[in-house]
Amino acid sequence: MRRALALTMICFAGRAMAQPVETVTVNGSALVGIWKVDFPTSGQIDYWGRTRWGELQGNFCRIEQAGSILSVRCFPTPGRDGTISVEGNHVHMAWGSMMARIYMDGVMSSAGAFDGHNGIKISGITIENPKLSHGEKLILSPSDTDAGGQAALLTRLLNQTVDGAVAIGPKSSFVQPPDPADLRAMGRIETVIYLGALPKPLPPNSKEPPQPAFYRAYDVEFTAGHRLCGLHQRDDGVLDAFRCV
Questions:
Q1: Burial call 54-88: b when 16+ CB within 10 Å, e when fewer
Q2: 161 and 118 belong to one structural domain
Q3: Per-residue confidence band for 111, with pLDDT thresholds at 50, 70 and 90
Q4: Which pairs with CB-CB distance under 8 Å and at least 24 residues apart come from 10-17?
Q5: pLDDT of residue 29
Q6: What is the pLDDT of residue 47?
């Protein structure tokens, strides 16, 4: 009886080991588009070397390809050009220099989704966020309705910026109009698609009350490129946030 049971277990184990392991191989060009990727709202290293990470927040990222090179920019942060490498089902994003950079390492579960961890590398020392981040490619389609309610204002601001006629106040670190030359190089605006609302970026110890729906974020598609833009208009009509990446 014991021998029969042992043989049964061996046969079962053999069949289980023979099952093919599902893998995902991703072509870099499949990543091109708009993604929503989780990043921590903050990161702090205290006097004792302990790291504290803020809550994860979904940021909108645009991945572009020029030849064989992939690049990424995310709104509202990091907000500058990053690099992407893909090997098999592993994707790696990085921003910064060899001395100090932030990164995202993930494993693709499909051509349009990955799970992984982000962290920072300082002078060769890696500090990784233990919380699991998720990234997912968005399927966008133009719509006659504007759920964010700011598409017309954003279009007007971008056109005024190109013409050199934009006037925005008050002065704020959240008001950073795009470079007019950059906008002119991309041609006219073709489509403005609402992506969603994002909270106001605040330092960890800020006494300012949180605003979970501060930015209205949009994908702006031009004839020769696209940008991710976010803006916020106060109840009195004053524009106190405007930025594109």
A1: bebbbbbbbbbeeeeebebbbbbbbbeebebebee
A2: no
A3: confident
A4: none
A5: 80
A6: 66
- Output the DSSP codes for 39-73: EES-EEE-TTS-EEE--EEEEEEEEEEETTEEEEE
Write the burial class of residue 181 (CB in 10 Å: 0-12 exposed, 13-18 middle, 19+ buried). exposed
Kindly state whether residues 133 and 159 are assigned to the same domain: no
CATH number at residue 102: 2.40.128
| Token pair listed for 129 | 């966020």
The confidence band for 25, taking pLDDT boundaries of 50, 70 and 90, is low
Domains in the chain: how many in total? 2
Residue 240 lies in a domain: yes
Note the pLDDT tens digit of each residue in 193-238. 999 999 998 877 788 888 889 999 999 999 999 999 999 998 888 8
| Residue ranges making up the domain that contains 117 | 28-137
Say whether both 158 and 198 belong to one domain: yes
Among 81, 111, 137, give the residue marking a domain's end. Answer: 137
Note if the bond before 180 is cis, omega within 30 degrees.
Answer: no
Tell me the Ramachandran region of residue 164: left when phi exceeds 0, alpha when psi lies from -120 to 50, beta otherwise.
Answer: left
Specify whether 122 is located in the same domain as 184: no
Unique residue bearing structure tokens 């099952």:
19
The Cα–Cα gap between 217 and 214 comes to 9
Task: Name the strand (E) or helix (H) holding 8.
Answer: helix 2-18
